[in-house]
């Protein structure tokens, strides 16, 4: 073609020999230059687009500038955005190639970012699911080590979810999954407790919905957890009682399956529960209206019990991987309130991701090192030809690790807490005292922790609302079994009596009843009463309440005659001075306190000897009397009489009136009227307190007490004759006073003074 159409209406002559002028600099045009069929149809056949011209210029203006390279932050942001987009698409059902996800995961390296933690969470979930699904009895040890390699603290919800789903899908593999749970529970008890909680909630939900499949899978898993001692056998007993309370065909069938799985374990550990359950089965078989198929299942169960469940062992030999001392048992009430913690199955952003990963890495090294040393203990002699230097280094490292472990154990007391928990659960899971003692003796007690057993028995007893004789029988059995336990309970009596003021009244009552039972049954020696000093100074209100309840418990167990006989005669002589603090001997004050105390609590019979002893005690000597004439004398009596001058009576006066003493006693002076003379006599006796010996006081020192007695004289006063001696220099008459000292309270009349010769005329 000679003529070519150019865009924008530009034409050039192809046949002109003139050289082509230099083209202008290329424009930065990013439009698509490829031919478009739409444009061809629009322009018609005459406006066809010519192919692009080849680049012929070599100048610098014809080169394209390279695009700017993204930074690392931009690459990370782009990878995160693409990863989130693909995850959202996959959650919506879009298929995402795994290779593309792995490529994006390799680009995200920021561990503090949410995208990186989400990728790690997905990897953890996939890893746990894969290991649980491929677990068998043959590769159990390898699977356990691989599981501990993952962060099971962060992924405990994922592990429990995988175990429950896998067990629900394949019931014959339940012993395998129970073994995994037992191994993880021995190092991480939170995992075992979470699994048990979710299974109980799953069983309760299935029971309410009448879902036989869910109930059967949950009860089977719980039964194998009981066999591996992850769950307490009382949980299985509660489930059996619930299933057999209102028997139906489905509930009885589930109960038969549960009993078959835990029967071998129950026969060994708690046969009482099995007896109760089979009695219920026997009642259902005879009286309940159930299907023949269910009746046949019950009969087969009775035959299995007769064969001692030999076809259904508690734990298979190839799955018995946990030592008895490493097992941690959990107990939960079937109707208790607890949550399944479903949020543990969902990803959550962790601000302290790296710190938590480092902490679990330390824990993982400790766990795997322990397991490696246990599994490969027989390989210790394979390196006998190694250098002595390496042996010394390894031994020093082992010693350092052991010393570090000891230090950690001393600071946290984890072993003590675990031991006390084991003792508590053992006691609470026992049906009677004999079974509890049998289980407690099977507990592995360290030599320095043996005193924890009596202490836990007393503490468990104190926690009850009311005193239960069950704990007293446990203490009695243990104390009578071995002298070692007797000594420990006697030391516990002294310890709890000294610290009894720290306990509440209810706990104090239970502790007193417990030791009262031990004393009444002669499980501990009565010389432990030497710790009690019954007096006002060495007792408190709490200790007095303790002694009261202690003696009341012994009185109820022995009876008052036997109890009083224990503190008399040969028995008291055998105890020696152990009862001196309880029943004082010499101190009268303490004797009175003890007598009053036992009388107030209704045990006055015990105080008869003390009363006799108190009467026979010598009386204390009286203090020396004060000196005569002392102003501080507290016992003083004075009796004196006053007689005033009088004249002889007139002959007209009646003598009877004089003899009868009808004169008024309050007259102060003698009055002479009409030739008559009235004689008046005043007698007063003043005393303060009784006095054993008369004390003669001075005349000028008179002290009168408020009690004054006055009595008129019955005989007429003698007549006085005024003499020259009676008159003073001033011509006044002096009063004749006579004073006498007598003991107060004698009641004798005042002493009469003899008259002188001059008054006899």
TrEMBL record:
Alphabetical list of SUPFAM superfamilies matching this protein: ARM repeat
GO cellular component: catalytic step 2 spliceosome
Biased composition (Acidic residues): 389-401
Native organism: Ophiostoma piceae (strain UAMH 11346)
GO molecular function: RNA binding
Domain MI: 418-534
UniProt-annotated stretches for the region Disordered: 1-79, 369-407, 617-761
Lineage top rank: taxon: Eukaryota
Keywords: mRNA processing, mRNA splicing, Nucleus, Spliceosome
InterPro entries: ARM-type_fold, CWC22_splicing_factor, Initiation_fac_eIF4g_MI, MIF4G-like_typ-3
Compositional bias ranges of the Basic and acidic residues kind: 1-14
Pfam families: MA3
Similarity section: Belongs to the CWC22 family.
Localization terms from the record: Nucleus
Signal sequence residues: none
Low complexity biased stretches: 638-650, 676-698, 706-716, 739-749
Any single GO BP term: mRNA splicing, via spliceosome
Annotated protein name in UniProt: Pre-mRNA-splicing factor CWC22
């Amino acid at each position: 073609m000679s003529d070519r159409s150019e865009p924008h209406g530009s034409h050039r002559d192809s046949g002109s020999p003139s050289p082509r002028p230099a083209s202008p600099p290329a424009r930065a045009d990013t439009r698509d230059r490829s031919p478009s069929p739409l444009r061809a149809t629009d322009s018609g056949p005459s406006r066809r687009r010519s192919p692009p011209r080849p680049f012929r210029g070599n100048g610098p203006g014809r080169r394209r500038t390279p695009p700017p390279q993204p930074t690392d932050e931009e690459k990370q942001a782009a990878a995160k955005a693409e990863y989130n987009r693909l995850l959202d698409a996959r959650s919506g059902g879009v298929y995402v190639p795994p290779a593309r996800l792995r490529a994006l995961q390799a680009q995200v390296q920021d561990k503090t970012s949410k995208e990186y933690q989400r990728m790690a969470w997905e990897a953890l979930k996939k890893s746990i699911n894969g290991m649980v699904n491929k677990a068998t009895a043959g590769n159990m040890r390898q699977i356990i080590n691989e599981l501990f390699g993952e962060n099971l603290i962060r992924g405990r919800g994922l592990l429990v979810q995988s175990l429950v789903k896998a067990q629900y899908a394949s019931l014959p593999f339940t012993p395998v999954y129970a073994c995994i749970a037992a191994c993880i529970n021995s190092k991480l008890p939170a995992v075992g407790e979470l699994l048990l909680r979710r299974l109980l909630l799953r069983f309760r939900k299935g029971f309410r919905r009448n879902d036989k499949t869910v109930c059967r899978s949950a009860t089977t898993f719980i039964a194998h957890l009981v066999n591996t001692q992850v769950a307490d056998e009382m949980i299985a007993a509660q489930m059996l009682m619930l299933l057999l309370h209102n028997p139906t065909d489905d509930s009885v069938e589930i109960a038969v399956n549960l009993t078959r799985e835990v029967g071998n374990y129950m026969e060994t550990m708690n046969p009482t529960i099995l007896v109760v359950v089979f009695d219920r089965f026997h009642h259902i078989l005879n009286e309940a209206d159930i299907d023949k198929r269910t009746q046949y299942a019950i009969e087969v169960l009775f035959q299995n019990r007769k064969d001692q469940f030999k076809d259904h062992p508690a734990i298979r030999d190839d799955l018995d991987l946990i030592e008895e001392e490493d097992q941690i048992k959990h107990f939960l009430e079937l109707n208790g309130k607890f949550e399944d913690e479903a949020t543990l199955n969902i990803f959550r952003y962790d601000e302290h991701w790296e710190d938590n990963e480092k902490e679990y890495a330390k824990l993982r090294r400790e766990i795997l090192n322990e397991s490696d040393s246990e599994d490969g203990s027989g390989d210790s002699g394979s390196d006998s030809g190694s250098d002595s230097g390496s042996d010394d280094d390894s031994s020093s490292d082992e010693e350092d690790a052991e010393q570090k472990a000891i230090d950690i154990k001393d600071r946290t007391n984890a072993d003590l807490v675990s031991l006390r928990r084991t003792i508590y659960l053992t006691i609470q899971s026992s049906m009677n005292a004999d079974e509890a003692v049998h289980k407690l003796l099977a507990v592995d007690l360290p030599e320095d922790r043996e005193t924890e057993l009596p202490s836990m028995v007393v503490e468990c007893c104190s926690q009850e609302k009311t005193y239960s004789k069950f704990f007293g029988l446990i203490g009695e059995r243990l104390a009578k079994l071995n002298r070692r336990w007797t000594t420990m309970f006697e030391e516990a009596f002294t310890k709890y009596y000294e610290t009894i003021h720290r306990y509440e009244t209810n706990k104090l009552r239970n502790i007193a009843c417990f030791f009262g039972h031990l004393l009444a049954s002669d499980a501990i020696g009565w010389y432990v009463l030497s710790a009690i000093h019954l007096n006002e100074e060495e007792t408190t209100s709490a200790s007095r309440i303790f002694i009261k309840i202690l003696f009341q418990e012994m009185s109820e167990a022995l009876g008052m005659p036997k109890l009083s006989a224990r503190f008399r005669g040969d028995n008291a002589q055998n105890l020696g001075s152990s009862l001196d603090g309880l029943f004082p001997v010499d101190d009268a004050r303490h004797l009175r306190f003890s007598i009053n105390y036992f009388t107030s609590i209704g045990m006055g019979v015990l105080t008869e000897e003390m009363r006799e002893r108190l009467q026979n005690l010598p009386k204390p000597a009286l203090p020396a009397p004060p000196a005569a004439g002392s102003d501080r004398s507290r016992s003083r009596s004075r009796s004196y009489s006053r007689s005033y001058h009088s004249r002889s009576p007139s002959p007209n006066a009646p003598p009877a009136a004089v003899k009868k003493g009808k004169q008024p006693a309050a007259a102060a002076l003698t009055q002479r009227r009409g030739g008559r003379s009235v004689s008046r006599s005043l007698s007063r006796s003043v005393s303060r307190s009784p006095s054993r010996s008369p004390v003669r006081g001075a005349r000028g020192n008179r002290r009168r007490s408020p009690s004054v007695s006055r009595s008129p004289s019955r005989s007429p006063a003698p007549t006085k004759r005024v003499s020259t001696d009676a008159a003073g220099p001033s011509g006044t008459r002096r009063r004749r006073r006579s004073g006498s000292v007598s003991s107060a309270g004698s009641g004798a009349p005042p002493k009469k003074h003899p008259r002188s010769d001059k008054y006899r005329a």
